[in-house]
Amino acid sequence: DAGITQSPRHKVTETGTPVTLRCHQTENHRYMYWYRQDPGHGLRLIHYSYGVKDTDKGEVSDGYSVSRSKTEDFLLTLESATSSQTSVYFCAISGDFGTRTPEQYFGPGTRLTVT
Amino acid sequence: EDQVTQSPEALRLQEGESSSLNCSYTVSGLRGLFWYRQDPGKGPEFLFTLYSAGEEKEKERLKATLTKKESFLHITAPKPEDSATYLCAVYGQGGSEKLVFGKGTKLTVNP
């Protein structure tokens, strides 16, 4: 298994509170990604990082911010959580894009409930 | 915009009953098609990557094939432990550096 951990694994929080989810990898991969998975929508990309301090938006980035100060850590922050952000969040990693697109490896997920 | 449609949404098989899952895609310049398996409460597990039409990959009872418009995941003589949701994703030349996922096929194999 790829060395990816996510913390916390479960969290319940109230509307309007800030929340930070952490993804940690031991593979020294350059690319890291945050997805959310919701019934009827499948996996959707929130933000991704292509290096330390290099990040970009995905298709559902509103209400989320990210930071990457070290290769191994990628943080996802909900500045003011809303009920629509109740979801399961997955972190993924991949190697460099050489001549072929690399596969992504996923972490175990964080189940977030916003009440 | 890249799109992925998986069918059927759910499939029930008896142990040993072979079948196929379908992944139809629309993408501007395919740079890779990926198959994942996801068990309840867990993250997706990488199975295969296919890069060009005609390519095939095999792993145990699973075989993935690719044409210019779709991919099939063939399951031969499935066992109950093959029960899971199977996800298909494509990466196109659109330049947005992202995988586009289908909604998955939930496979149940009864003993």
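qc> DSSP finds no helices and eleven strands in chain B.
qc> done
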